[in-house]
Design a protein that fits this description.
Rossmann fold; four-stranded parallel β-sheet
Length: about 260
């Protein structure tokens, strides 16, 4: 490293130290002071339930017992989803809800790089196989109110980590759907039916490609199913899904 590079690097480090002194980095969940931005404190980290095998080979739903690498959950056997595979970083519970909601609604955009790192590990096979990464879009009115799309921030950070192209505007919401909160499986599916479309002129970005779709929370899968349906119709060869967290109900043994 030459003298000029050393000076630039030193200035960058000094600026970071000054910023940390003025605005100390906070835990993504409880806002306790931590050593680096985008971190969880030890107590919050210990409360997170990261999802690991065994899980459904298709949707990634965790199993309570080992079932073999190709075993499917009952739901995927009864009605195979439109996507090929889905993986989640965390169980969506009281511990994970706080940092995810802070990221989604509380302007904690500093969480995006950490979430992308976790996602890169949890969905490593999907990330490696992907030709392009695509976030689930927000409707333009919701985007104006929130000022950012949390799924797009994670997708962009994941793309930088993996060296994969990201198309944040490939999909669009054609209508402002009501919140999915409190809705059942069939109601969620109806709520997002026909709510997504491919942006005009971008079909060539999809045809024959392996798409990795990124979202924040997987509850019933209705949203990613609707997006996957659009991508399939546009000619995508595969559609995989990576999310930060998923709702896990009891009784998840394979059939």
């Amino acid at each position: 490293m030459g003298l000029a590079e050393l000076m630039v690097d030193g200035a960058r480090r000094g600026g970071g130290l000054l910023l940390d002194a003025l605005l100390p980095p906070q835990c993504l969940a409880c806002r306790t002071i931590v050593d680096r931005p985008g971190r969880l404190c030890a107590a919050c980290w210990g409360g997170m339930q990261f999802i690991a095998a065994p899980f459904c080979a298709c949707c990634g739903l965790p199993f309570e017992v080992e079932a073999g690498p190709d075993m499917l959950c009952g739901e995927c056997l009864r009605e195979p989803p439109r996507f090929d595979r889905a993986r989640a970083v965390l169980r969506y519970d009281a511990a994970s809800r706080s940092p995810i909601l802070a990221f989604k609604h509380g302007d904690r955009t500093d969480a995006a790089p950490a979430f992308a790192r976790w996602m890169a590990q949890a969905a490593a096979d999907l990330v490696t196989a992907a030709d392009v990464i695509v976030p689930v879009p927000l409707h333009r009115w919701r985007l104006l109110r929130r000022r950012y799309n949390q799924a797009a921030l994670v997708a962009l950070a994941l793309g930088r980590l993996a060296g994969k192209p990201v198309l944040p505007d490939l999909l669009r919401r054609t209508r402002a759907t009501p919140s999915q909160g409190g809705l059942g499986r069939s109601e969620r599916a109806r709520n997002v039916q026909g709510a997504f479309a491919l942006r005009s002129g971008l079909a060539g970005k999809v045809q024959g490609k392996r798409i990795l779709l990124v979202d924040d929370v997987f509850t019933t899968g209705a949203t990613v199913e609707a997006c996957a349906r659009v991508l399939r119709r546009a000619g995508a060869s595969h559609v995989d899904v990576a999310v930060l967290a998923r709702v896990v109900r009891t009784g998840n043994d394979p059939i």
